[in-house]
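Progress against Task 2.4 (sequence-to-structure conversion) is shown through the following example record, which the project officer requested during the mid-term review.
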Amino acid sequence: MDETVQRLVRRFKTNYPFQIAEGLNIQVWCCDLGDSTRGMYYRKLRRHYIAIHKNLSLPWRRFICAHELAHDRFHPGISKFFLDEQSFYNAGKYERQAN
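Structure tokens generated for the chain above:
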């Protein structure tokens, strides 16, 4: 895990998650996600998106963006929505790994 992060930092010459997302061609949106959701990662038709709640402070937005980038790198093809609705698997493991 640490090796993947270091590789991204070396490749993009920054640890700023918004610049890394841009370099990976991941669109980052700030929008209203309701009261209980701070951010989400979504992939559709080979396009990648990160949505971050617009009312969060900049430090929180950075953390959420980095967290969602971890989902992109470490959990490709795994959706929390699918795990919650179609399986008995606990999505908490993937959330801890992304943190």
